[in-house]
Amino acid sequence: MIFLDGVGIGKKDFDSNPFFKYGFKTFDKIFGETPHLENLHIKRNGFYLFPSDAQMGVEGLPQSGTGQVSIFCGINAPKFVGKHFGPFPYSTTIPIIAEKNILKYYKDKNKKAYFANAYPKIFFDYIKSGKTRLSATSLICKLTGIKLNGVSEVRNGKALTAEITNERWNKKLNYTLKVIKPETGARRLLRIASQNDFTLYEYFLTDHLGHGRIADEFDIIYNNIDRFLFTILDELKQNDLTLIICSDHGNFEDISVKTHTTNPALTITVGLHAKELSESIKDLSDIKPSIIKYCT
Fold first, then answer.
1. Tens of pLDDT along 100-155?
2. Which long-range contacts (CB under 8 A, 24 or more apart) does 90-96 make?
3. Measuring CA to CA, which of 42, 153, 157, 295 is 20 to 30 A from 263?
4. How far apart are CA 148 and CA 90, in angstroms?
5. How many CB atoms lie within 10 A of CB 12?
6. What domains lie within the chain, and their CATH numbers?
């Protein structure tokens, strides 16, 4: 599973939707067209692109905390909480995260569950300081006893930084990592996935761009994630792996606003059981039970 933070399917708008404004090789080459609100379902050569409802019957703008709990735990978290909430998980969902997250499901089945992201030293210092506000993915790992990767795993090719290429770690955090191409990162993730029963990788810079942050890096980030996703989809062995690309809410697909959107979340399935998954997933809470049904 590749989790893309804040990527919805938006309007066919060449001013506000970057996928139309700048073009996106992943959509153009893999699917032959770019999805939009009048073209929500695209099937091509075993690749399935479709929407997942991020509102789930609750008014307001979908948020990361409840959206991600819905994805990873298979519940309608906004309905449970009574509202959309984020960016961190709502306090009453933490026991649910501890018991129902998808990494725990695989671990309890004695299968290999792996979180492919790496964290810098500053993050581990944050945890050691006693602070507890964690994203859904890092909280899942902490509560499930799954090791969080650090810089050594990046150097050894066993994990990826959140921006894929290592360049931001070097510039912002004073690391001296080898800068890799997005294609290299994609192949690394495919190799990691082939060694585990369930592999999760999280990419959150799309949400940052959607909020108007790090705008000076837009071109680089946009190009990197496009090249990364294209390589994943182009080189994935469809007879060996199942890939789900999913998101928690809309945001990046409409850069005319700096808030989230009510657009459906982008979802893509490829490989084993891709068709069944595409037919089974209607909203964010369907993703985990669909994976369990078809991929275990």
1. 999 999 999 999 999 999 999 999 999 888 777 899 999 999 999 999 999 999 99
2. 90/65, 90/66, 93/65, 93/66, 93/69, 94/139, 94/143, 96/69
3. 295
4. 22
5. 13
6. 2-295 (3.40.720.10)
